[in-house]
Design a protein that fits this description.
37% of the residues lie in helices and 19% in strands. By secondary structure, it is an alpha/beta fold.
Amino acid sequence: MKIKTIRATPVNIPFVAPYRFSYGAIASLTKTIVEVETEDGVVGLGECADGDRSADVLTLGEQLRGLDIRLTAEAERRVVPGMAYTPWDNLLAKRRAFGGIEMAMWDARGKTEDLPLWHLLGGKVRDFVPLTEYFAFRLPGPDHPGEATPADIARFCGQMIEEHDARIFEGKLATVDPDTEIAMVREVRAAIGQRELRLDANGAWTVPTARKAIRRLQEYDVSWIEEPVESYEEMAQLRECSGLSFSSHRIDLRRAVELGAPDAIVTNLNELGGIANAMAFIRACEAFNVGFRFHSGESGVATAAYLHVSAAARHVTDASQTLLRWYADDVIEGGPMQPKSGGLWLPEGSGLGVALDRVALARCHARFIEEGAFPADKKTARYGGSFQKS
């Protein structure tokens, strides 16, 4: 059960149509697929969510050769410095890269012991994981018209109900003028009936702008707004004018408890440094009554991992996010997962329960070489793509 080699392959996962959010528009996501191969020939899969981490993964992997795949805590001690800050190293990069390696170690262990990840984590409390259905203004794609008007978006939401029994809708704000966005919310509310409606401004508003927007949104029964403003302190200020629930991608549990905002922290497994750290963090959120859920944007590999963690963690009761419906490709066998009736059932099988499609992996890697990484330029991305090796 010892590590023989670690491979890292940067890939681009395209969308059927570029979607707009407060940072601009995005047509694809760059991820790094990690493979940890044991001396017994078992290959565990992992993923780094934040772009091309192949060089970081391979550098850390050199320090882990020969280590038992069950020793995830020892692996972290070897490659992630224990201090909170140092001017001589990039701790965040190492934590994110290690998160992808650690995921693959768990998968390899599950495959070796013929047990699903949720079993290794102590058991499951649910078999079905609820997920939100995303909507946004989208630009035309190669084979998709996109959505250019509030009516287009409302039509899309109605289609998702009809075709997939979507239950909870979450949409992007702060992309066009306020009147058009209010019209979008009004039309979506009419299209989805009494189903839950959430919104996401990605931290684009100032406090005064957020107050005005929230007042205008009140009549549409919005349950959550993700990052109406950027900081926890600003969210706390919004408490004076709204009883809405707020969520944030920033991770500072101590500050969230002190300020009473946000109500939930939304992140991924890499940001927390892996599955074991995520389970510990979720337990801490539960102890302090702060919500937790996963955000969108992973390939089928990391999506499978967060489904297992969601199944094993009692506190992850709320719907997490997914962009899976918008994917035009994926690296796993069977292609992008398709939520139904408001979520996904747990993958079956040992470890993560998913397998790489080698042809799709090669295709997505070739796309990375051709297009470059998001948000790096092509020259940097082409250099990064050279790190696919053992």
